[in-house]
Amino acid sequence: MNVNRLEKPNDILRELYKNSWLYLMLIPGLVYFLIFKYWPMWGLVMSFQNFKPHLGISGSDWVGLEHFIRLFSEPQFFKLFRNTAVLALYNICFFFPIPIILALMLNEVRVELFKRSIQTVIYIPHFVSWVVIVGISYMFLTTEGGIINDLIAHFGFEKIPFLLSEEWFRTLITGQTIWKEAGWGTIIYLAALSGIDMQLYEAAKMDGANRWRQMWHITLPGIRGTIIILFILKMGDFLDVSFEQVFLVLNTMNREVGEVFDTYVYTKGLTQAQYSYSAAVGVFKSVFALVLVLGTNWLAKKAGEEGIY
Amino acid sequence: MKDRSLGSRLFDGANYLLLTIVALVMILPFIYVIAVSFATPEEIAQRGFILFPTQFSLSAYAYIFSTDTLLRSLGTSIYITLMGTFINLFFTSMMAYPLAKRHLRGREKILLLVLFTMLFNGGMIPTYFVVKDVGLIDSLWALMIPGAISAFNLIIMKNFFQQVPYELEESAKIDGCNDLGILFRIVIPLSLPAMATIGLFYAVTHWNTFFNAILYINDSSKWPLQVLLRDIVMLANDRFGDQSAVERSDFHPITIRMAVIVFATVPILLVYPFLMKHFAKGAMMGSVKG
């Protein structure tokens, strides 16, 4: 059989020799992935141990599922899960549709210069760091001299402690995400929109469809595949709510609704040195995310859509 | 071709107006920050919202450069951005090139190995210990090496390399050039839009690097700009400059923060227009399956 012929050691050697440069070029990258991506995955076994850094994984005691049992029985667990999930839901409901809407709006613009100017402007916040985005929001929203609160006071209302309140935390996070990423998010939809066959629009116009109907019957179905793929990928980030951002916005006044899995891992693991326990929290989060991606992908395929794999 | 009905014109009008408002809302905060960083204390006291200061003052900028704290962080950030992006592009292209060769045996397995890291990873704590075990804690390499190849960018680059005409590579091979030479002499020069786009993505990540520095760099003299920025803007640490200037109080304390933000943001925005024309094209490569 063909396979047997190729599996002969001589052939493999010949193949290696013929493409020796290609295989050599793969080595640095492979070494990188093994050290910095797969070694940490192996490191996750520490969540079944009482890991001590000076003993390493081979020398630490095994404790089985103790850390997972602790996580699930802790009252913190419900709070973390709720906070993370609610933030993710906010993101899906209020952020996810905005790049789609913006892309559809941009797609309707006929004046090329106007379109390009708007694009240039709305991409900018994406390139700015979270520190700057959160920092600017701080200076705008603080009750001590922030311009928004000065305005509120000017009109005779009571100042609102946006930064230090539990009620405003989620709105603040979602608003910042929209500001930073909504414009950039349009790129992929605009790419998909440019692939729609113009003849479809011509035909629809012949049939007397106005622009709303064209959008509904041609444009939206044309980018449905892209929307679904991005939605599946979003599910993978479900528990990954932009960690840097939450870390920066978090303070003692909003921790009750703001603490999410990632910030909890950081606090427990690296500031309180409970390595194994925090690694267990990380494992739970990663596995949950994986299940969500595979589950959404399975559902999408079941509904007759193209999944991510 | 043009549809000139009343409904259609109303639609256009509302569309243009809304897009303009969205763009303004997104950009005005930055303009405000830049304006205030140049404003005098009197003007800040008199006018609430400044988009264009009537009197320019550079005293906030003079203050932030009165000591070398900010300059040192700036140097660190420039270094990790240039060096880090070079490392990224070098390693990513070197791995992407063989993976773009469909005939290469074992290619599928390696691609799977790469793709899996996009779905599952070890997370913060185990990664921290790997970085520690390889001895990178408190070294600037910790901000460059652990992120040397992004799986996502690797796939984009691989897809781009697959579009380079094979005949060009073939003729170089006949001239006795090896695969490494072909990559650097033929494939990369032909893929400049992709290199520019991916290079920009990597460079932005390095310039904006914050949390990795919090994790891996304890020594405050090695802090990149963003970490110092948080210290100044959010923890309200205004005392990093020459204190005699504060006593003269020829600037409003808020202008210092604004000036630091401008300083941390402007370099990225200066490169952006030059790369804009490339990345509108390059960013679409990712959406091409292959």
Automatic annotation (TrEMBL), chain A:
Task: Supply the source organism's classification.
Answer: Bacteria, Bacillati, Bacillota, Bacilli, Bacillales
SUPFAM superfamilies listed in its UniProt record: MetI-like
Name of the protein: Protein lplB
The UniProt entry, under Pfam families, shows: BPD_transp_1 (PF00528)
Q: Does the keyword Acetylation apply?
A: no
Q: A single GO CC term, please?
A: plasma membrane
The family line of this record is: Belongs to the binding-protein-dependent transport system permease family.
Q: Does the keyword Transmembrane helix apply?
A: yes
Query: Do you know which InterPro entries this protein is assigned to?
Result: MetI-like, MetI-like_sf
Localisation:
Cell membrane; Membrane
Q: Which UniProt keywords apply?
A: Membrane, Transmembrane, Transmembrane helix, Transport
Per the record, membrane topology reads:
Multi-pass membrane protein
Residue ranges constituting the ABC transmembrane type-1 domain according to the UniProt record: 81-296
| Gene3D superfamilies in the cross-refs | MetI-like
Please provide the Gene Ontology terms (biological process) for this protein.
transmembrane transport
Q: Which residues cross the membrane?
A: 21-39, 87-109, 121-141, 182-203, 215-233, 275-300
**Predominant localisation class:** membrane
Which PANTHER family does this chain map to? POLYGALACTURONAN_RHAMNOGALACTURONAN TRANSPORT SYSTEM PERMEASE PROTEIN YTEP, PROTEIN LPLB
